[in-house]
Specification:
- The protein is mainly β and 187 residues long.
- The strands form 3 sheets. The chain has a 6-stranded mixed sheet with strand order 11-10-9-8-13-12, with no helix packed on it. It has a 5-stranded antiparallel sheet with strand order 5-6-2-1-7.
């Protein structure tokens, strides 16, 4: 599998017990779909795993992996991201996107000016954010909303962003007065 034909569906977060069980954080829309698409692999596709979901606990699956029989073997897999072939997944609905399809897309402003490249997609609990790497400038986080990202063109390999007010302006910091430690506003 090439990296563009794989989608990350979960990550092993640690061992569970002494008999080789692992804890797995799912990245699928429905947590129970973690094992629904067949065997999973590592990012390189060199190791494949048959994953058997056993129970749900604290936002993670407790799972058995064929061939992993003890705590040491399970612990050695900690941090491993699990992938499936993109072709095994259903096509997303209209207005839905796989994160893997967004990463790497060029981002433009409404006037066509190049803005940067989507480096990652995050969800910190208040909604998804796109991390956009900008050449010669720091990365910015853009809310992945219709207002801030009005165009997502997977086929055309681009997104258009309308950055919220203040996103592109550098943050102002109060100046320190060298003599008395007061800031510009007298505080």
């Amino acid at each position: 599998m090439s990296s563009s034909s794989k989608v990350c569906v979960g990550q092993i977060t640690g061992a569970h017990g002494v008999r080789g069980l692992v804890k797995v954080k799912p990245f699928t829309a429905a947590p129970e779909d973690l094992a629904a698409y067949g065997p999973v692999s590592d990012e390189a596709g060199t190791r494949r795993f048959a994953l058997h979901l056993l129970s749900w606990a604290k936002d993670q699956w407790i799972a058995r992996i064929d061939g992993v029989a003890d705590r040491d073997a399970a612990h050695a897999l900690r941090g491993l991201r699990l992938y499936v072939d993109r072709a095994a997944l259903p096509e997303p609905e209209e207005e839905e996107f796989y994160h893997a399809d967004l990463i790497g897309l060029p981002a433009e402003l409404a006037d066509g000016q190049r803005f940067g490249t989507v480096r990652a997609v995050f969800d910190f609990g208040a909604g998804e954010m796109l991390e956009i790497a900008r050449p010669g400038a720091g990365a910015v986080m853009v809310p992945f909303t219709r207002a801030a990202v009005p165009v997502v063109d997977i086929a055309g390999r681009r997104i258009v962003i309308d950055p919220p007010a203040g996103l592109l302006e550098p943050a102002e910091r109060p100046r320190e007065d060298a003599e008395d430690g007061e800031t510009e506003d007298g505080a």
